[in-house]
Design a protein that fits this description.
- The structure is a single chain.
- The protein has about 300 residues and is α/β, with parallel strands linked by helices.
- The chain folds into 2 domains: about 170 residues, no CATH class; about 130 residues, no CATH class.
- Strands 1-2-4-3 form a 4-stranded mixed beta sheet.
- Helix 1 runs antiparallel to helix 2.
- InterPro entries: DUF2268.
Length: about 300
């Protein structure tokens, strides 16, 4: 098993300094080593367009602002810290579950888009994806809170990668439930908290609603909803749903993360397991155990 954190710092600096007409080709070359993360997409994927859709740094404006932000990421040793964190986390995970296979990992770190109000505000300057085995995507704007959480964010995505890796939980886009993603977000946060503590380990978007019983009840009411097309509203909230063309359901940003943490914490308390030990536990078991436990119930 090898972890390759692509050294995108010099490539991004070159792109942002290049003549604008040359930037798309340079960006495509930078992204190509991680193109496998789109292997389940039908047809050929336009990597530059996917970068734009994912709130990656612009190639036609904000050059100076992006160059300054890029230097902040570099000075924070983002690439080195993330590589060390992932190696440490794999060791912790293998100690807890020595029978799993950890794939070779390719990690793509990109700077975010300062002109994207949804990304900078609603998403708090961070977007990430670790759902495709062998690949982790991390998009940051260097807010101080994000720089402090570089390791925890990477480890959260690693948890997803290993949950759905070879021999792990099967994700069928048509039949998977909201409950599976809610639990997976709670497990990923719990793993990050196991390594880095509650102050850094929680995904920031979910923190404001951790103790909101109305949000808890609403999300729990939708745990059996199936189909990935419905997940954005239930897990990320209405603002994300509107951004990506889904139907709002009346939830604030990060609702599913908050509820996932409550469900998983109740499960871990009831079973005495660590987050690492619970990596591939069935989401139904987590939900049933948690909802029968007083610690997850509203008002507790």
């Amino acid at each position: 098993m090898t972890i390759t954190v692509l050294d995108t710092y010099p490539a991004m600096r070159r792109i942002l300094r290049a003549p604008r007409e040359e930037r798309a080709a340079l960006l495509e070359a930078m992204l190509k080593p991680a193109a496998g993360m789109y292997r389940y997409f039908p047809g050929e994927v336009d990597l530059v367009q996917m970068h734009r859709m994912g709130s990656g740094f612009p190639i036609d404006r904000d050059e100076d602002r992006c160059l300054d932000a890029l230097e902040e990421l570099h000075e924070a040793d983002a690439w080195g810290r993330i590589e060390r964190a992932l190696n440490d986390a794999v060791a912790v995970q293998l100690e807890a579950t020595p029978d799993i296979t950890v794939p070779d990992l390719t990690v793509l770190i990109v700077l975010g888009d300062p002109g994207d109000e949804h990304f900078m505000g609603t998403s708090l300057g961070m977007a990430a994806n670790g759902s495709v085995s062998g690949y982790i995507y991390l998009n940051f704007w260097p807010y101080p809170e994000n720089l402090a959480r570089l390791e925890a964010t990477a480890v959260h995505e690693l948890n997803h990668n290993l949950r759905y890796g070879d021999g792990g939980v099967v994700w069928n886009p048509a039949t998977v439930t909201v409950g599976e993603q809610v639990v997976s977000e709670g497990l990923a946060d719990a793993f990050a908290r196991q390594l880095y503590g509650d102050e850094l380990g929680y995904a920031r978007v979910g923190v404001p609603h951790l103790h909101d019983d109305a949000v808890f009840d609403k999300v729990v009411s939708g745990l059996e909803v199936t189909g990935m097309q419905n997940f954005t509203a239930w897990v990320h909230g209405d603002a994300h749903a509107l951004r990506y063309g889904a139907t709002p359901v009346g939830l604030p940003t990060g609702a599913g993360y908050a509820v996932g943490n409550r469900l998983v914490d109740a499960y871990l308390a009831a079973t005495g397991r660590t987050a690492a030990q619970a990596l591939r536990v069935d989401s139904r078991e987590v939900i049933d155990t948690a909802l029968s436990s007083r610690s997850a119930a509203p008002g507790r």
